[in-house]
Batch of 3 targets.
Target 1
Amino acid sequence: MSLERYTLQDRLISFVAGMVFAVPTAGFIWLFTNTKLAVWGPDGAFLGSTGFWAVLGTFAIIALVAPDLFPDFLGKVWQTILRVGHWW
């Protein structure tokens, strides 16, 4: 399906549906990163809320630009999270 066939309403619905899954994913990535920085990073290493918003903003842009690719992208992110979790 070509991207030109999506209306603004289609993109917004995809965005809202995608954010239901993207917000917890971004929070998990932010929390996991801060946990590892606290243990292995230098003293006082911490990603502020800007890190969370940056990850969420990336997800939001992908959801708006490519609504048909966003579920696959989010699935790849979770596969990577699980691989890193098993490795760690």
Target 2
Amino acid sequence: MVAVVGALVLAGTPALAATSYTCSNAELVRVACADAACEVLDEAILTVAIDGYDRFTVCGEALCWSGTGTRQVSGAYEIVTGVGLKSEIGDGGAPNDAVLAFDPKTGMGTILAPPFYSPIHCQVHPGE
């Protein structure tokens, strides 16, 4: 794993495009925030994925958004941002922005996708 991460850092962003991630907070504390107040929710299980073609998907409860993600490496962390992700559920809903930041060595990170602000655990799938 260390060799893969090192190769990604040395190669820069183009190498990231071949890497897929799947993330979830199913085993972690789940949090939702509104109006600068946050609460722990039992039912707010999130799933997050970015594939080798930079399709970024964030789903939780009855909400799901997807679109193109932008990847970058910053120090030991990988960061994926999605601006104006489109709703995939219901009547189309409003677009949403999301940021996933995580440590590929441990898989631990954070997802910010209002109304969800949650710790998350990611698995890296090189070459997919």
Target 3
Amino acid sequence: MSSPFDPAAVIAKFIDNVAPYDPNPEADPVAMVGVRTALGEGVFAVSDHVIRAMCRALESYHDPEDRGTCVECGSRRLDENLHCPDCGRLHGILGQVIADHARRVAAEDAVPSEDRA
């Protein structure tokens, strides 16, 4: 079991990691970032450099649960096997193999039995 994140501590650590690279460390803060959770709270005065770095970090974040979008129904809830729980479609290589097999079986079933011999 993992320990819970303390968002205030994470933000403070981020600021500590980014601030040394601020080209204008004496400039007045341009934003106040505050967070309050059951684990604690913090209000941080941040420079333009830090707030830009924070925005870039948030924009580039990719959730590990994001496995793409279902091409069938548009759902964004593909599971770890690339199965869409909303429409049932399988994605990826396994999904392609199953879809190809299903098309072959359907094509065989469409041919009258006397033509299959």
